[in-house]
Design goal:
The chain is mainly alpha-helical. The chain contains 13 helices and 6 strands. Strands 1-2 form a two-stranded antiparallel sheet. α1 packs across α10, α5 runs antiparallel to α8 and α5 runs parallel beside α12. About 3% of the residues have low confidence. Its main location: membrane. It comes from Streptosporangium carneum.
């Protein structure tokens, strides 16, 4: 049920053009400043977790360190390798950054407010398929990574771009499936109406006191929320899923050939804005959006006026702190583990959970044949189990055959130690493989 202060789709498209321009400029400025403070906050929080001080020289508490880094990258000489594809090399950072800013345009940050005498929602725009717009912008951003790797014409950068494309395919599917439960419960893909659907849960009577219960989807649909938490780390290439820019393997990944100049700054800007976008999406879909948490929600004016903007900002800080916590705590996974988690765990779990949620919603429809719903759900589950059993048995037989082959090879090598097999070293060291060992004179280094 929509409250009086809750915006709906009918409230959008009525703002004067100057109000829309003000909203767009404010969102852009807040994201730019958010990146500066986000970099400082991440460095400061990680340093505290590692018993260090972090930035503490430039400005009070090191607050101007990010500003100094940004000015340095903006004024630094832009070095470009001669072999790069110049057009793609220049376009790639733009393709990374622009969709990230566009995705934030459909994020609701508050209810209806009065802005310069005009009643308008604290949201730039909304669409009947707003969540799909966010997914589309996230999918376009990966092209920037692929183009950056391809345009640099380097083996390491190309490998980083290929990893990014494979990673986004697996985790984008899991992320999209984690939204389906929310769509089924909310009955809409509009971000403002999804926030409105999380308002006012069932009240709990306790000793004559009426306590409103939370109706956030992070509680009602906790499997979807947990899957999304994992996928948003993979979607933004953050630890432990930062394989496209694994420094230990690919030097610097897809951005190896970008010197610490303005283009490199744009790439880093796009990464942090993407983190803000997925954080805002998690707040919108699972954490009640701009609504105040309990017990602040018991205050009548908590969800009206400009106060919801504060609750939204505090939730953003908490989710961003979770990103930092993961970076400071978790090691990088192997690439095969990354792909196995996305395809073999997250997607099957999501499909099973969607089936369960759809069955529960079907039971709430008046006049539905419940026996038929249960029978269809049972048939689907049995079919999925049969497919898993079939392919799992085949894979197990392949693993056993491969293990037997490896053991046979090692046994053969151990039987002939003079052939240079592993782990037994060859015996005739002076004439190994027909090459005489050079005698070293005594007393020489």
């Amino acid at each position: 049920m929509l409250l009086a202060a809750d915006p709906s789709l009918a409230d959008f498209g009525k703002d004067p053009i100057w109000i829309s321009i003000i909203k767009a400029v404010v969102i852009f400025a807040v994201l730019m400043l958010g990146v500066l403070f986000g970099v400082w906050f991440e460095r400061k929080l990680i340093s505290r977790m590692q018993n260090r001080y972090g930035p503490n020289r430039a400005g009070k508490f090191g607050l101007l360190q990010s500003v100094a880094d940004g000015l340095k990258m903006g004024l630094k000489e832009d070095l470009m390798p001669r072999t790069v594809d110049k057009v793609i090399y220049f376009i790639a950072p733009v393709v990374l950054a622009v969709p990230a800013f566009l995705a934030f345009s459909v994020i609701p940050m508050g209810p209806m407010v009065s802005m310069f005498g005009v009643t308008t929602p604290l949201q730039l725009t909304d669409l009947p398929v707003a969540v799909l717009l966010v997914l589309a912008m996230a999918s376009i951003s990966v092209y920037g990574i692929v183009l950056a790797g391809w345009g640099s014409r380097s083996p390491y950068t190309i490998l980083g771009g290929l990893r990014a494309s494979a990673q986004v395919v697996s985790y984008e599917i899991a992320m999209g499936l984690s939204f389906v439960g929310v769509f089924l419960y909310a009955g809409t893909l509009s971000t403002s109406e999804i926030v409105a659907s999380q308002a006012g849960g069932k009240a709990l009577e306790l000793g004559g006191l009426t306590i409103p219960m939370p109706s956030w989807y992070m509680i009602l649909l906790i499997p979807s929320f947990l899957v999304y938490v994992v996928t948003m780390l993979g979607e933004t290439n953050r630890v432990p899923f930062d394989l496209p820019e694994g420094e230990g393997e690919l030097v610097g990944g897809f951005q190896t050939e970008y010197s610490n100049s303005l283009k490199f700054a744009v790439i880093m800007l796009a990464e942090y804005v993407n983190v803000f976008v997925v954080s805002a999406v998690s707040i919108t879909l699972f954490m009640g959006g701009w609504r105040a948490p309990f017990p602040i929600s018991m205050w009548d004016g908590a969800n009206s006026g400009w106060w919801p903007l504060l609750w939204f900002f505090l939730k953003m800080v908490l989710v961003f702190s979770f990103f930092i916590w993961c970076r400071a705590s978790l090691p990088r996974v192997r690439y095969d583990q990354l792909m196995a988690l996305g395809w073999k765990i997250l997607i099957p779990v999501n499909l099973g959970w969607i089936l369960l949620v759809a069955t529960m919603k079907a039971f709430q429809i008046q006049g539905v044949n419940r026996q038929l719903v249960v029978a269809l759900a049972g048939v689907v589950l049995l079919g999925c189990f049969a497919l898993w059993w079939r392919f799992d048995s085949v894979l197990q037989k392949r693993r056993e055959a491969k293990a037997a082959q490896v053991e046979a090879e090692f046994a053969e090598l151990d039987a002939e130690p003079t052939a240079g097999g592993f782990p037994v070293p060859p015996l005739d060291l002076p004439h190994y493989h027909g090459v005489a060992r050079k005698e070293v004179p005594s007393g020489s280094n």
